[in-house]
Design a protein that fits this description.
homodimer; about 350 residues; mainly beta; Tachylectin-2, Chain A; five-stranded antiparallel β-sheet
């Protein structure tokens, strides 16, 4: 194990048993992929919390958590499905109910995710809200909200996240000044799209973001760059970086942390999975004034799932990040381990540059 | 056959034998799905023309038309593939080369499409350009450009179309004043997306378009509405209309013609296919000041493939439109028949309203 990739000794920093369920019928199965931002003297994590319905006694029944709207307000509710009646559906996967004979057609997810704020003075010990900070809505998020990323711009914070509904997994945008009240801007990327991170600053007068569409027929799950003048409407999409044909990133590749501007360019910690769904973190460096130019990119993973809490969990062999911070010369990566818990790794910038084989003219 | 659905007696109006190939190595296999606009005293069709490479004598070889860039200019070129060497590929489908055992992963298309203008004084007899009007570019359109739709706005025309490359099928935008010089605005919808039609006018200060993403895992090929302030950047996407579970529109549904504003609302001729890929035209009426509201929608197809040139062709049992015109009380639909030729159907508005079961308080 690389001694320069420093896992925090208190990992996991947040785990399911730390979380008060949103409903007495629910159980928390994961607190993981979190957005991160430093605000005044606090580190703020916006955590994805996944819950399932506490299993019913009747083994022929499956209960699904959903969001319903009553009298204009959204509520969590439980839908009970009778396995013996739904003969066209396959209930064998604990994560989802699929159409028999078609693993790519999901009928229901078995868990539902929402977001909660956790705050810390030292970046290690976090106090987590007892209730949901952001609930999925009944309209475009019936199956939950996932993987938030936070970009500070001016006096606002912009949160991009996956909005999941029976119509697909899309990317939506929420704006906040204070993490108390939130303004929804709706879907910014049509399904299927995920892993959207807005760059924290205009580049040549334009906002940029990375995103990861999943085309059905032609192409692969690759990273694209999109451009905007107002953060709500996006266009001028260009392909940035694709999966490689072999190795650790031959399955899918996608944006990870919100990019950080360093003196060498935009530092992007991204995720990649192989065909066996082993998720690692890689890094690329994009030109400061032209993010379409990749100056350097990982040949090998920067971070691999190696320790117990990364290998074993709700979905094992996963390290996945939605945000990191630059503290002096240290990159602090907050990451989801095994779709189960939130952990922290510290890496010196110089170690990342060495990994990228960038020479130092000193 | 419904006598009020009037197929033009000169159908097909344009067919492959009317087209001069773009290269002496190419043959034209289709002139079909065309955008349409009336400009001064002319009807202008922007036609999709599909070409393949004239088959080589060696039966172990397959030749593919592609776009290459040399010295800053884009050219058509032929790539020769050796079937005996590419053992992982399946060459049995005449339309595409796919990965063996995975019909959903396309390696190459066997044909390449570009656009050509056809002009007519009477809307029936067309004069077609001898050379490509719009060529696919080498960057995002290596596998061609397909299914153009033309929206007039102010003194400009905005052309949306499918841009196909190994990175996926996306939607791009081109602007023109005169159909002679063209300004490219790049990709407006990420892969996989097609069937984009911009409404010909702002609605409550906002541009609207219909588009049809194809999500890989959750959801189906449905029609969405998107919003823009500048036509180049799009957001505030909402789901408009999904496939139905049975019948003629249970496979896919997508925008067809650019919407027409009538006194009853936006008239939208759309396409729908069943699971056997039989493509019909349906119609929906959207509220004039709120296109997210469907006032009425076809229960049965408005137009079905019924006559020889619709049933037989490069891809049979297809009627597909990218544009129609309102001439007095007559809707003139230009449509692609069997991915082969361009045809015309005339339908009185009143017939369409009866089809939609809209009553007339007269």
């Amino acid at each position: 194990m690389n001694k320069n990739i420093i896992r925090n000794t208190e990992n996991p920093l947040l785990k399911p048993s730390d979380v008060v369920p949103s409903s007495k019928e629910f159980q928390v199965i994961g607190i993981f992929n979190c957005g991160v931002v430093r605000c005044l003297d606090e580190t703020i994590l916006l955590c994805r919390i996944a819950e399932t319905v506490i299993h019913p006694e009747d083994e022929n029944k499956v209960s699904i958590p959903v969001v319903v709207n009553k009298d204009g307000r959204d509520y969590f509710e439980t839908v009970s499905l009778d396995k013996t009646k739904e003969t066209a559906w396959d209930f064998s996967d604990s994560r989802q109910i699929i159409l028999k004979g078609n693993a790519l057609k999901i009928i229901y997810l078995t868990s539902l995710s929402h977001f909660r704020i956790a705050r810390s003075k030292d970046g290690v010990h976090f106090e987590l809200d007892q209730k949901p900070t952001i609930m999925p809505n009944n309209k475009e998020e019936q199956w939950g909200i996932e993987d938030p990323r936070i970009t500070p711009l001016g006096d606002r914070f912009y949160i991009t996240y996956t909005a999941v509904s029976p119509n697909g997994a899309a990317v939506s945008l929420i704006e906040t000044k204070d993490f108390t009240s939130f303004q929804r801007h709706g879907i910014i990327f049509l399904p299927e799209n995920k892993d959207t991170a807005i760059f924290p600053g205009k580049i040549n007068g334009t906002y940029y973001c990375m995103n990861r569409p999943v085309p059905a027929v032609i192409g692969s799950p690759d990273i694209w760059l999109s451009r905007s003048v107002d953060l709500i409407h996006w266009g001028r999409h260009t392909h940035l970086c694709g999966v490689s044909s072999t190795g650790w990133e031959n399955g899918r590749i996608g944006g990870g942390a919100v990019p950080i501007l360093t003196d060498k360019g935009w530092l992007v910690i991204y995720h990649a999975a192989d065909k066996r769904n082993r998720y690692c973190l890689g890094v690329m460096l994009l030109a400061a004034d032209a993010p379409e130019v990749i100056l350097a990119k990982s040949k090998e993973p920067l971070v691999e799932p190696l320790v117990d809490y990364e290998i074993n969990g709700f979905f094992g062999n996963v390290v996945f990040t939605c945000g990191c911070l630059l503290d002096g010369s240290t990159v602090i990566i907050y990451y989801g381990a095994a779709d189960d818990s939130i952990c922290r790794i510290d890496i010196e910038l110089e170690v990342i540059y060495e990994h990228l084989e960038i020479s130092f003219p000193e």
